[in-house]
Design brief:
single chain; about 250 residues; alpha/beta; 8-stranded mixed sheet
Length: about 250
């Protein structure tokens, strides 16, 4: 199972949207995908039309070693895509696991239990670089960083890039696969300038997802963008291109 972290220490850059749409496209390519909602806000869980409060077990119980991975996985409406749901309870996990042995490796231990059933696990992380995101990185082979083309987002890339380099000392398998640009407006000089600077200084996947209200409307409908928008919509094509590139890299 190839484990991919979708991460950025800045919020509001399209992490959840990217995780869901990447998973949906891989599922359409007949890959078995496990989505992992590792954010206490549970945005991914809610996007997939689940009520986080109704689960007896969720990512909190998994990360605190109170249940097995099989006990927490649920099926989604997306073809070939399952989910480990989250809830606000997960916010307590960072404190609770501080005293546990090998706490940075708990997520990897749990995902290893079900690795034979999936081609990919895609982890949607919270906008921080705390112990939950470190768990995600310790489990992952690749990190994809969605970035809004703004100056502050660009500066934040230095932090997450350095974090990935530090993690590599303990998880030599991890690779910064690249950035993807979200909420892109090609009409602004600032956006074009930031894209150029990202391309010059960081791994870059050449995926530019244009800003569109269709993404918000797709989230309200609880469906990936390819099911909501027309076939030639650039956002759908962007995530299809991302899925194809991820699968190519993983299998090369």
């Amino acid at each position: 199972m190839n484990i991919i972290s979708i991460a950025n220490n800045k919020g509001g850059v399209g992490k959840t949207t990217s995780a869901l749409n990447l998973a949906a496209q891989l599922g359409r390519m007949k890959k078995n995908v496990l989505l992992v909602d590792l954010d206490p806000q549970a945005s991914l869980t809610i996007y997939l039309k689940f009520d986080p409060a109704k689960f007896l077990r969720n990512a909190y119980h998994l990360i605190t070693r109170k249940c097995s991975a099989k006990e927490v996985i649920v099926q989604t409406d997306l073809k070939n895509v399952d989910l480990i749901p989250s809830s606000i309870d997960l916010s307590a996990a960072e404190i609770e696991i501080t005293s546990l042995i090998n706490r940075e490796h708990i997520l990897k231990e749990k995902l290893d239990e079900v690795a034979k059933y999936y081609d990919y696990a895609i982890i949607d992380n919270m906008p921080s670089l705390g112990i939950l995101t470190i768990n995600s990185f310790m489990a992952s082979v690749y990190v994809i960083v969605p970035v809004e083309p703004s100056f502050l987002s660009y500066k934040g890339l230095e932090i997450i890039s350095n974090t990935i380099s530090d993690i590599k000392k303990y998880n030599p398998r991890i690779n910064f696969l690249g950035t993807i640009i979200t909420m892109y407006d090609p009409r602004t000089q600032h956006a074009r300038m930031i894209v150029d600077k990202i391309q010059e200084n960081f791994p870059f996947l050449n995926i530019l997802i244009k800003r569109s209200i269709k993404f918000a409307n797709a989230a309200i409908a609880g469906v990936p963008i390819n099911e909501f928008a027309e076939d030639n919509f650039s956002g759908s094509n962007g995530y299809q291109k991302l899925a194809e590139e991820v699968d190519r890299v993983v299998n090369s």
